[in-house]
Amino acid sequence: MKLPTLEDSRISVTGRVATLTFCRNDVRNALTGTSLIEDILAAVEWVNHSDGISVLIMTGDGAAFSSGGNIREMRDRTGIFSGSAQQIQEQYRRGIQRIPLAMEAAEIPIIAAINGPAIGAGFDLACMCDLRIGSTETLVGETFVNLGIIPGDGGAWFLQRLIGYQRAAELTLTGRLVAADEALQLGILLEVVPPERLLERSGELAESIAAKPPHAVRMTKRLLKHAQRGSLLDFLDLCACFQGMAHQRQDHREAVSAFLEKRPGVYTGT
C-alpha cells in the first residue's frame, strides 16, 4: 500500500487502521504557517480511496494536538491573515476551510487522540472527528473571541452539533479553556486516559471498528453524516438503498455465518 506524500506529518498503518501524526511541535502543530492543512487533506483523500483502511486516527507529536492558527502570523499579518478583508476571505476559503469540507466527506470513521492542548482551529479539527479520546493532559478551547475574531473554519457549526447550542454558545462566547475532566462531562471527549495509554486506547477503539465488515463501516459512516442534514423521508430512502446493497455482499453472509457459528468473522471487503 503506497502511503501519501506528506510534508509536516507522518502516516503509519497497522492492519486496517491508519494513524496521522502532526510533526510540527516547534509551533505546537499550528495549522496555519505549516503544511498541516495540505497534509490533512491528502491523508483524508488517501483513506477515502484506500479499501484496505477502515479507521483513521489523528494525533499530535510533542506537547500539543494543535494550537490552531499561528498567532505570530496574525500579529504580523502574514500568510492567510495578510491583505484586505476580501483577500483574507478568499484565503480562508482556499485554505483552512477546505479542512471541514474534507472531514465531512471522509468515508471512514476518524478518531482524534488529543495528546495535549487543542485550541481554536485545533479544537475545531478535533470536533470534526467522529470520536475523541483525551488524556489527563488534554486542554481544549474555542478561543477565537479572545483574539477578536470568530471561528472562521466552521467551528460554530460543529461544536453545537456535538454538545448542543447553549453549551457551545457559552464556550464560544467566553473563549475559556476546558480541562479533560470537564470535556468528558460535556460530551466533547468519549474517554480520558493516562497520557501513556492514549495511543494504545485509541488504537483499541479503532481496531474494534476495523474488525467489522469494511463496506458496512463505510456505509454506516455515510448514513450518520446524512442523518445530520437530511429529512427523515430522504434518509429512510437512503437507508433502504444502502441496506439492499449490503445484503448482496459476501461479507454480510460471512458475518451472519460467524454470528451463528459463534466465531470471529473473516472479511475481505467483498
Rounded to the nearest angstrom, the distance between the terminal CA atoms is 18 Å
CATH topology of the largest domain: 2-enoyl-CoA Hydratase, Chain A, domain 1
In CATH terms, the superfamily of the largest domain is 2-enoyl-CoA Hydratase, Chain A, domain 1
Number of helical stretches of at least 4 residues: 12
The CATH level-2 architecture of the largest domain is identified as Alpha-Beta Complex
SSE string, helices as H and strands as E:
EEHEHHHEEHEEHHEHEHHHH
- State the helicity in percent bands: 40-55%
Mean pLDDT: 96
Class computed from helices, strands and strand pairing: alpha/beta
Rg, rounded, reads: 19 Å
Name of the level-1 CATH class of the largest domain: Alpha Beta
Q: Report the biggest beta sheet as strand number plus sense, adding barrel if it closes.
A: 6 strands, mixed
- Catalogue the unreliable spans: none
Can you give a write-up of this model?
This protein has 12 helices and 9 strands. With 270 residues, the chain is of the alpha/beta class. The chain folds into 2 domains: 9-210, 2-enoyl-CoA Hydratase, Chain A, domain 1; 214-260, Orthogonal Bundle (Lyase 2-enoyl-coa Hydratase, Chain  A, domain 2), CATH 1.10.12. It has a 6-stranded mixed beta sheet with strand order 1-2-3-4-6-9, with helices on both faces. It has a 3-stranded mixed beta sheet with strand order 5-7-8. The chain is globular. The mean pLDDT is 96.
Features:
270 residues; 2-enoyl-CoA Hydratase, Chain A, domain 1; globular; three-stranded mixed sheet; 15% strand; Lyase 2-enoyl-coa Hydratase, Chain  A, domain 2; six-stranded mixed sheet; 2 domains; alpha/beta; 46% helix
